[in-house]
Specification:
globular; EC 1.2.1.27; methylmalonate-semialdehyde dehydrogenase (acylating, NAD) activity; binds nicotinamide-adenine-dinucleotide; alpha/beta; NAD; 38% helix; 23 strands; oxidoreductase; Aldehyde Dehydrogenase, Chain A, domain 1; 503 residues; Ald_DH_C; single chain; six-stranded mixed sheet
Length: 503
């Protein structure tokens, strides 16, 4: 690993300004395609956390009083700024995450959708009114912001996942503190600058960098009201347990093991195209990546040959290189873990149809490269099945019936996404009704819902009861009030009673 002497440092964004903070410690940020250190990241100390929370609390009190028209004016401006900085944001994502530029631009596009949804928050905050619910009595409900929201996000979508959260939280009148992944913190900092340029008051959107200490500080701070978390399952579970024990509302989205069932009646070329893209795109580092292909009956042999052809044709290169399909994985440790799991599968009897373990990009041998890897004959007891690999590895399993495939999916502890490839409506319907999974694709391999629906899995893929963004996001970032009101005429006869009031 090399480190240039004139490294830039990445600071926090607290109360409208970039600051190195008082924590003192820094850690390296790497370019995964070269293994070189590209910057040093300042880590927050307790004083930085206290400063950010205090600024958020003060900002929430005033921002929450802004009219809806004034708040959405900032959202519209922010939307324009993000749209005009897609290339700049994508370049930052590629430099620190490693995914190819077009894929990075794609994640920003999905984030933009959520900003656009949040521009229409007025419609969703209209509340409800029941005229004359009882004689002379009207009942109405409306929603108010929760106050200070902290968002803790993973490395794999450094722009999209923060944008799943902050546009809605902010449009609803909250202040938002983002604790992004330490691995790719530069794009979130550009988001902070764009929020400020859009006219957002200081303290409403802040970025605090750090690891477990910073997260723990947010989870337990009495002035933080709600936590949105996206990351791996063990941390999601911990975040949910810790923050709920400290009286906060929490949505904590975790890891995944997404299966696709392929029936013999599917269009096999189409299925192979989509499976290959869903398994190897972004080096398999998507929580909605397909990592298990469940071939039914005679589908396996045709499918394997076709996926193999596609896997071998993938261009793996630095994300900035024209025509690159897939970049490196995120860290040296991640690469070592992927190789270990692939090796264990081979030792346990799986067939390595395509072996990406020895892959490297000439001239960039220090990058964290893993080539597309296709495993056949994987069984449910192998680590290649029990672990979320989070690398470019597709495991093929074989079953005899669609019912057996559904049972396999339902026995898995995760329930984020799943897909079926078939031309049978009856089997697709059986599948959509039968699987215990939150997001389902029918001939769609990565069924990430559009912004006006909500995103979330079942079982170990989500702790908490609210999915993220869409209407469930609005509900998560607001609290309901119901008002029962009576405006008596001046000389009315009182109807007060010692009995419980009824109609
Ligand atoms: P991670 O769990 O390691 O980190 C997520 C966040 O938690 C980061 O901000 C990190 O700093 C923080 N963190 C890490 N360890 C912590 C600890 N011990 N205590 C407190 N905070 C801690 O996840 P990652 O490796 O950055 O991201 C990949 C994971 O995220 C995968 O499991 C993937 O499936 C999951 N993910 C899920 C979704 C979803 O929508 N369900 C979306 C994207 C990613």
């Amino acid at each position: 690993m090399t480190e240039t002497p004139t490294l830039t440092t990445i600071k926090h964004f607290i109360n409208g300004a970039e600051t190195a903070g008082t924590g003192g410690a820094t850690q390296p940020v790497y370019n995964p395609a070269t293994g070189a250190v590209s910057a040093r990241l300042h880590l927050a100390g307790r004083g930085d956390l206290e400063a950010a929370v205090a600024a958020a609390k003060a900002a929430a009190a005033t921002w929450g009083e802004y009219s809806l028209a004034k708040r959405t004016a900032v959202l519209f401006k922010f939307r324009e700024l993000v749209a005009s900085h897609v290339d700049e944001l994508a370049a930052l994502v590629t430099a620190e995450h490693g995914k190819v530029l077009s894929d990075a631009a794609g994640e920003i596009g999905r984030g933009l959708e959520v900003i656009e949804f949040a521009c229409g928050i007025n419609q969703l905050l209209k509340g409800a009114y029941s005229d004359q619910a009882s004689t002379g009595i009207d009942v109405f409900s409306f929603r108010q912001p929760v106050g200070v929201v902290a968002g803790i996000t993973p490395f794999n979508f450094p722009v999209m996942v923060p944008l799943w959260m902050c546009p809605i939280a902010i449009a609803a009148g909250n202040a938002f503190i983002l604790k992004p992944s330490e691995r790719d913190p530069s794009a979130p900092m550009l988001l902070a600058r764009l929020w400020k340029e859009a006219g957002l008051p200081d303290g409403v959107f802040q970025v605090l960098h750090g690891g477990k200490d910073t997260v723990d500080g947010l989870l337990t701070h009495p002035d933080v009201d709600a936590i949105s978390f996206v990351g791996s399952t063990p941390i999601a579970k911990y975040v949910h347990e810790t923050a709920t024990a400290h009286g906060k509302r929490v949505q904590a989205l975790g890891g995944a093991k997404n299966h696709a069932i392929i029936l013999p009646d599917a269009d096999m070329d189409n299925a192979a195209d989509h499976l290959s893209a869903a398994a190897f795109g972004s080096a398999g580092e998507r929580c909605m990546a397909i990592s298990v292909a469940v071939a039914v009956g005679g589908a396996a042999d045709t499918l394997l040959g076709k996926v193999r052809e596609r896997a071998e044709a993938i261009k793996v290169a630095e994300g900035t290189e024209p025509g690159a399909d897939m970049g490196p994985v995120i860290t040296a440790a991640s690469k070592a873990r992927v190789l270990k799991i692939v090796g264990e599968a081979a030792d346990a009897g799986a067939t390595l149809v395509v072996d990406g373990r020895d892959f490297t990009v000439p001239g960039k041998e220090d990058g964290y490269w893993v080539g597309p890897t296709l495993l056949d004959g994987v069984s449910a007891d192998m680590t290649a099945y029990t672990e979320e690999i989070f690398g470019p590895v597709l495991a093929v399993m074989r079953v005899e019936t669609v019912e057996e495939g559904i049972a396999l999916i339902n026995a898995n502890p995760y329930g984020n996404g799943t897909a079926i490839f078939t031309s049978s409506g009856a089997n697709a319907r059986k599948f959509q009704r039968g699987v215990h999974v939150g997001m389902i694709g029918i001939n769609v391999p990565v069924p990430v819902p559009v912004a006006y629906h909500s995103f979330g899995g079942w079982k170990n893929s989500l702790f908490g009861d609210k999915h993220i963004y869409g209407e469930e996001g609005v509900a998560f970032y607001t609290r309901a009030k119901v008002v029962t009101s009576r405006w008596p005429e001046p000389q009315h006869a009182s109807d007060a009673s010692y009995n419980f009031p009824s109609n």
